[in-house]
Specification:
By secondary structure, the chain is mostly helical. The protein is built from four helices and no strands.
């Protein structure tokens, strides 16, 4: 398995779960499809330049955790902080 697969699958899983939580359990099938496509692309990119591919994969994970992908849905970090401040 490529070194980029873990971070890319985490990006997809976090995005999928965060959107499902805020859409009342609705499933957006585009996220798993795009995640699979991205995992394949990053595995191929890793064969060309491993360091670049791994770096971009980890930056993508940090970006998904800290930014809003959909303006209507808070970022996972915002969701976690809201839960934490409410007292769990």
């Amino acid at each position: 398995m490529a070194r980029t697969t873990g971070p890319i699958l985490a990006v997809g899983a976090i995005s999928f779960a965060n959107k499902a939580l805020h859409d009342g359990g609705g499933v957006d099938i585009r996220i798993p499809v795009a995640t699979g496509f991205a995992a394949v692309v990053f595995a191929l990119l890793e064969r060309i330049h491993e360091g670049l591919a791994v770096g971009i994969a980890w930056i993508a994970l940090a970006a998904v955790l800290l930014t809003r992908v959909d303006p209507r849905v808070p970022s996972p970090t915002e969701t976690l902080l809201k839960y934490w401040n409410r007292g769990g």
